[in-house]
Design goal:
By secondary structure, this protein is mainly alpha-helical. It has 20 helices and 2 strands.
């Protein structure tokens, strides 16, 4: 898209960077937005225009809606939602791909890995920008490939579908998310990868969360644990541990405290055997277990909430964890703090979550609910709370 010069955009960027949180230097903003330092300087001086993608990256780095920087632009979440039909169109022709070019497999592998990094970093606008074309290209490659190459391409399709699903699920397109999960399950037998199959079972839990069918989701995960490969390698250990980790949370949602504690113990024992890392698209290790311990405590509610606060007093997620997971920790913690009567702490946690992953935070249902509650509890509070509530469309 062509660059658009607008009066005041550079000044607004400079204002949010240097006056409003997070108070960054130009170099810090450039690093966070993956934009050249010289570009930031020229934009702020009004010497060059700014494209949609660059403005979105800068806004994400500042933890604000792009609309605050360019007054004639719609909110970032609207652009993502407007792009969802293109994802739907791409998967509608999964078995009848259109004609077009196909890059070598190693380039497709790199493109899928980049999409996964965007998913873990909660960069959803970048996913919807590139994934429709990538899914079409992967479909062409898969159906045209000789038998010996189809297994890897099927695995790449599964991974790409997962990145697309992250956007669909988090932006409330639950039918599209369910369809993407079914396509993962369609492609996984051809991939012939038991570890990747376990990751698909992990993602499938979204359909149970969406339907509030927590008991059924727990049964599905326990079957997946039984089918997972024996933990003889780090990836296999992490795959089994991630399933236990997910099972603990959904057991908590089902109010099954006994099963939740059992699965969390199993997950912790497996996490102690591997370093914290991203295995087959899922972060797993000791730090991820602590994040899920908070999530479990919030799921169980009532007397368990204090457990979440105890974890947070003793530990904070390190920067090495994916942004989506770190922001999720603070979103869950904010709910525990709100329920415990420490509203100021809850608001601070929500602000930290926004700084880490703005798009993930803005689209999270709990953030909107909790921001609205905070606004009602503190009607005479500062402009910051009002701005936050408006930013995430809290009602």
């Amino acid at each position: 898209m062509p660059e658009l010069a607008r009066d005041g955009v550079g000044k607004r960027i400079a204002y949010y960077r240097s006056v409003v949180r997070p108070r960054m230097t130009q170099q810090q903003l450039a690093d966070a937005a993956c934009v050249a330092l010289g570009t930031i300087r020229k934009i702020e001086r009004g010497e060059r225009g700014v494209s949609d993608s660059t403005l979105e990256a800068i806004a994400d780095a500042l933890g604000i809606d792009p609309a605050r920087l360019g007054t004639d632009r719609g909110a970032a979440h609207t652009r993502v939602q407007d792009a969802l039909p293109a994802l739907s169109a791409a998967i509608a022709t999964y078995d009848l791909p259109d004609d077009g070019p196909v890059r070598p497999v190693h380039e497709l592998r790199d493109a899928v890995a980049q999409a996964a990094r965007w998913r873990l970093g909660a960069q959803y606008t970048r996913i919807v920008r590139d994934l429709p074309d990538l899914l079409n290209e992967l479909g062409r490659a898969y159906h045209a490939a000789p038998a010996g190459q189809r297994a890897e391409l099927a695995g790449l399709l599964v991974r790409a579908y997962r990145s697309a699903d992250a956007v669909a699920y988090k932006f409330g397109a639950l039918d599209l998310s369910a369809r993407l999960i079914e396509l993962m399950r369609w492609a996984i037998p051809e991939a012939g990868d038991p570890v990747l199959s376990a990751s698909v079972a992990y993602v499938r839990t979204e359909t149970f969360f969406a339907a509030r069918a927590h008991g059924a989701g727990l049964r599905a995960l326990e079957l997946a644990v039984d089918a997972a490969p024996a933990p003889t390698s780090a990836a296999e250990t992490a795959a089994r541990g991630a399933l236990h980790m997910r099972a603990a949370v959904i057991a908590g949602r089902a109010s099954n405290a006994s099963a939740a504690d059992t699965h969390l113990r199993e997950a912790r024992a497996l996490a102690d055997q591997v370093p914290e890392d991203v295995y087959c698209g899922t972060a797993f290790g000791p730090d991820s277990i602590r994040v899920h311990e908070v999530s479990l405590a919030v799921s169980l509610g009532n007397e368990h909430v204090g457990r979440a606060l105890k974890v947070a007093r003793e530990w904070k997620p390190p920067k090495g964890l994916p942004a989506e997971r770190r922001s999720g920790f603070y979103i869950e913690l904010a709910r525990a703090q709100l329920w415990s009567g420490v509203a100021d702490d809850a608001f601070e946690s929500l602000k930290v979550a926004r700084k880490i992953a703005p798009q993930h935070t803005r689209e999270h249902r709990w953030v909107r609910e909790d921001a609205a509650t905070l606004r009602r509890l503190k009607r005479g509070d500062s402009e910051a709370l009002t701005n936050f509530a408006e930013w995430c469309a809290a009602t």
